[in-house]
Structure formats: C-alpha cells, structure tokens
Design goal:
Blueprint: E1 2-5, E2 14-17, E3 27-37, H1 39-45, E4 61-69, E5 81-84, E6 87-89, H2 95-98, E7 109-110, E8 122-126, E9 130-132, H3 140-143, H4 149-159, E10 165-169, H5 173-184, E11 188-193, H6 198-206, E12 211-214, E13 223-228, H7 235-242, E14 243-251, E15 272-275, H8 281-293, E16 300-304, H9 308-316, E17 323-327
Parallel strand pairs: 10-11, 10-13, 11-12, 13-14, 14-15, 16-17
Antiparallel strand pairs: 1-2, 3-4, 3-8, 3-17, 4-5, 5-9, 6-7
C-alpha cells in the first residue's frame, strides 16, 4: 500500500510504501477511494494536539470499498462501499458508552490520530465503526467530506437547538455543508469569515446566507445561536456578544486557541457556551439518513494522494473552497 505518513509534528508528511494491512477480529480492510482533508488533520500535523502515537497516517473522512474481512466482522460484505469517520473505537462497557455517550469514552480510538487513517490506499477499521453507504450513489469524493465536516457539523448543529437565526463562524468544509441543511429547514444563516475574505463570503451567499461578513463585524440583528468552526478562541466572546439573551454558542472543533477573558455580562442573560466532543455512531446514522432527503452538495478540490502536503498547506492558508479531498 501507499501512504502519506507523519513522523514528526511540524514536518511534512512522507510518502511510503508499506505492506498491505491484514484485518484482525471484527475488522475490515478497506480500499480507499477518497479521503477528505480536515482541519483536525492540520492540528495533528502542526503539533497542536497531544501526541496520538507516531508515526501515524492521518485522515478520518474516508470512503472506500471492503476488500477483506477479519474473523467475526459482522454486518458487512466484500465489495461494499462504506465510510469511516473520526471515532474508530469505543470500549462499549464504561458509563459513557452504556449511557449513549460513546463519544466521551476514555478508551476511545480515533481514526487518523490514535489509529492509522485514510491518507493511504488501504485502511483497517472496526466493522462496527463503518458506515454502509449503499443508499448513496454519489461519487466518493462528494461523500468523503460528509464523514467529518458533515457528521461533526451535524452534532454541533443539533446542539445549537431550533435557532431561526443561526451564525456560522468559519465558512469552510463544515459550514458550507450545514448551511444547505439549515436553509432547507427554513433557517436564516449568517456567515462569518476571516476579515476581508470576500471569496468565502460570496460562497456563503451563493449557498443561501442572508448575510455574510468578517468575523470582526456584528450581524445586522441578534442571533439565536452560533456555531464556531474557526479554531480561534477570541471568537468566543465575539459570538456571545452576537447572540440574544437565552442564545447558545457551540464550539465545534477539537482544538481552539485560548479563550481570552471576557465580562460576565456577555454570558449573563441565560446565554449558554458549550463544546462538542467527537461524535456518536447514532449521529452518523442520523445525518446519513437526513441527506437522503436533503442531498447536500459538497464543493471539493481534488488532490492526488502524494499531494497531501500541498492540500494541507492550502487549507492552512485558506485557499480551499469547500473541502479538500485526496484520491489515491
């Protein structure tokens, strides 16, 4: 198999040839058809996350076909197209797992972080953490961003509650998918980008945003809720100031720069501030069922697998419209 491997944070990924992996009990080997590039991958490569074990193959927004099944791998078949997402393992026995909160399992494993991921031609994944994609006839590069930008975004969207006026801070892979869901459900969307990023603001308007501007601007009217996809801690008090009394601010990323001090009056008035940690398989199945009714269109920029470093550089510099996707 071919893979792009991280050996040291802050260093480029290295192209390597490795023996094809063999699935163990309860696992499936998947031939990767497409793997989207997530900002979490960037946090891993840039050393902004605690080490998850090196060397490591990043990537957790994967679409592929099963070409080998390990003993006891149930519910899947050879040749089946499946998706693999960030949560790659949970113990199934702890209090969190037994109460429907497997996303908080202390023994959880994460694709492309503690387990090798999809910047490769093959990956091994637990069968119970694979999502059957038989109902989606879309090209794999269109589906791949849904496996994290869509799934984690959906969980954040649910926690935002029934907001009529919804703000999205950071208009990238997740926001450009969620705005399509929100608009289909009749919500008003206010998009916030890097100051001066007119291209992303125009993209947001094309997808139905009623207003788009820089994150240093105030929306024309108070928001019911806001989701922060940009990993910028200083946007937390900004978003709190933008939501009405009783409003909610949801932090949707796994990493964020430090949140500065802010006056209590921004939180007062029954405003809520919360984070979203990982996802559950139930979130995944809900979202994949939803997009049968709301066929969201992922805007993608394609890169060969060997150009993974260029894709990461483009994401870091804000040059990606929608989502970057690697194709082996």
């Amino acid at each position: 198999m071919r893979a792009m491997v991280l050996h040291q944070p802050g260093q480029p990924l290295v192209a390597e040839e490795r023996p094809d992996p063999t699935p163990g009990p309860g696992e499936a080997r998947i031939r990767v058809l497409a793997c989207a590039v997530c900002r979490t991958d960037l946090h891993l490569v840039d050393g902004e996350l605690p080490p998850g074990g090196l060397p490591r193959i990043p990537g957790h927004e994967i679409v592929g076909c099963i070409d080998m099944l390990g003993p006891g791998a149930e519910g899947l078949r050879l040749g089946q197209r499946v998706g693999v997402a960030w949560l790659g393992h949970n113990c199934g026995m702890c209090e969190s797992c037994c109460s429907g909160r497997e996303n908080l399992c202390d023994q959880a494993g994460f694709t492309g972080y503690t387990r090798d991921g999809g910047y490769a031609t093959h990956i091994v994944a637990e069968a119970r953490h694979c999502y059957p994609l038989d109902h989606l006839a879309w090209p794999p590069e269109r589906i791949a961003p849904l496996m994290c930008a869509g799934l984690i975004g959906w969980r954040a969207y649910k926690f935002a509650g029934p907001a009529r006026r919804l703000g999205l801070y950071g208009f990238g892979a997740a926001a450009h998918l969620l705005i399509q869901v929100a608009r289909a459900q009749g919500r008003e969307v206010y998009a916030f980008t890097r100051p001066g990023d007119e291209a992303s603001q125009a993209h947001a308007r094309e997808l139905g945003a009623c207003w788009a501007g820089g994150s240093d601007e105030a929306p024309p009217q108070p928001l019911d809720a806001a989701i922060l996809f940009a990993p910028v801690g200083s946007l937390v008090p900004t978003a709190l100031a933008a939501v009405r009394k009783g409003g909610r601010v949801v932090c949707g990323g796994i990493h964020m720069s430090d949140i500065p001090g802010f006056p209590y009056r921004l939180l007062w008035g029954k405003r809520q501030l919360m984070s979203v940690a990982n996802l559950t398989r139930q979130d995944g199945h809900e979202f994949l069922a939803l997009i049968r009714r709301i066929p969201v269109q992922a805007d993608v920029q394609l890169y060969p697998l060997e150009d993974a470093n260029r894709a990461l550089d483009d994401l870091r510099a804000g040059r990606v419209r929608g989502a970057a996707v690697l194709k082996p």
